[in-house]
């Protein structure tokens, strides 16, 4: 069931998003060769609880961590671990914050030390593709308009868009309808309506878009060992430009 958020609900989601943005900005200060994603995860859980928030991912279908931490060829849902990040890695940190019932969801890919030019370009194209999708996220447009804008941009740059994982509605729980694919045809799919809360979160690969699952049942990675990047925002649909709750450049 697709819900449309009230003014009060949007205000509470914005408070959760503000805390999530602050958390990502703290993570950005921590990212360096030698740190572990387990250390980052421990920081996130402690930081959120200090601010009276709940790391919503803990306990979701048995998931044990406050964050997902996906390194290099891991597309999404990587487990935080004690292995040190190396110079030249890229790492995506994804989290969902619950602040007094308001939810916000955002992932960000970080460069660890000195990343090569192609890695930087992968990250840049992925981030730009997110905003290409956001441009189409307005009342009256359809879900396919979002996916088409992302797919055509990414493929023109020589990368591929993951098809096995999508954006989604958010609130009152972490994953709600509708699904938001990052590929598709314009004018197709559910029509967007004012007050809908969704995530757009393109995952973009250096090589082919296909993924495979690790034995842990959670972590997806590229089949050809190419790197993958992801950026995600939570937004509210309006009759004009969407409200990007998790925007970091306010």
UniProtKB/TrEMBL annotation:
This is Methionine aminopeptidase. A divalent metal cation 1 binds at residues 94, 105, 232. Binds 2 divalent metal cations per subunit. Has a high-affinity and a low affinity metal-binding site. The true nature of the physiological cofactor is under debate. The enzyme is active with cobalt, zinc, manganese or divalent iron ions. Most likely, methionine aminopeptidases function as mononuclear Fe(2+)-metalloproteases under physiological conditions, and the catalytically relevant metal-binding site has been assigned to the histidine-containing high-affinity site. Belongs to the peptidase M24A family. Methionine aminopeptidase type 1 subfamily. Gene3D superfamilies: Creatinase/methionine aminopeptidase superfamily. Its cofactor is Co(2+); Zn(2+); Mn(2+); Fe(2+). Removes the N-terminal methionine from nascent proteins. The N-terminal methionine is often cleaved when the second residue in the primary sequence is small and uncharged (Met-Ala-, Cys, Gly, Pro, Ser, Thr, or Val). Requires deformylation of the N(alpha)-formylated initiator methionine before it can be hydrolyzed. InterPro entries: Creatinase/aminopeptidase-like (IPR036005), Pept_M24 (IPR000994), Pept_M24_MAP (IPR001714), Pept_M24A_MAP1 (IPR002467). It catalyses: Release of N-terminal amino acids, preferentially methionine, from peptides and arylamides. It is an enzyme of class 3 (hydrolase). Keywords: Aminopeptidase, Hydrolase, Metal-binding, Protease. Its EC number is 3.4.11.18. It comes from the Bacteria. CDD domains: MetAP1. Substrate binds at residues 77, 175. The keyword Magnesium does not apply. It holds the Pfam family Peptidase_M24. One of its GO terms (molecular function) is initiator methionyl aminopeptidase activity. A divalent metal cation 2 binds at residues 105, 168, 201, 232. Residues 11-239 form the Peptidase M24 domain. Monomer.
């Amino acid at each position: 069931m697709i819900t449309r958020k009230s003014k009060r609900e949007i205000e509470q989601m914005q408070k959760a998003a503000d805390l999530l943005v602050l958390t990502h900005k703290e993570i950005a200060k921590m990212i360096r060769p030698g740190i572990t994603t387990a250390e980052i995860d421990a920081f996130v859980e402690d930081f959120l609880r200090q601010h009276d928030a709940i790391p919503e991912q803990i306990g979701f279908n048995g998931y044990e961590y406050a964050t997902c931490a996906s390194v290099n060829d891991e597309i999404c849902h990587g487990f935080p671990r004690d292995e040190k990040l190396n110079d030249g890695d890229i790492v995506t940190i994804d989290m969902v914050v619950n602040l007094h019932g308001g939810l916000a969801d955002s992932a960000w890919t970080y460069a660890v030390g000195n990343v090569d030019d192609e890695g930087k370009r992968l990250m840049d194209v992925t981030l730009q593709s997110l905003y290409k999708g956001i441009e189409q996220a307005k009342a009256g447009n359809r879900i396919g308009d979002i996916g088409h804008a992302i797919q055509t941009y990414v493929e023109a740059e020589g990368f591929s868009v993951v098809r096995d994982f999508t954006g989604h509605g958010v609130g009152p729980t972490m994953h709600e309808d509708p699904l938001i694919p990052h590929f598709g045809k314009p004018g197709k799919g559910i029509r967007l309506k004012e007050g809908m809360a969704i995530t757009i979160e393109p995952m973009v690969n250096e090589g082919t878009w296909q993924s495979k699952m690790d034995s842990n049942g959670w972590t997806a990675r590229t089949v050809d060992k190419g790197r993958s990047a992801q950026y995600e925002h939570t937004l509210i649909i309006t009759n004009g430009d969407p409200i990007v709750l998790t925007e970091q450049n306010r």
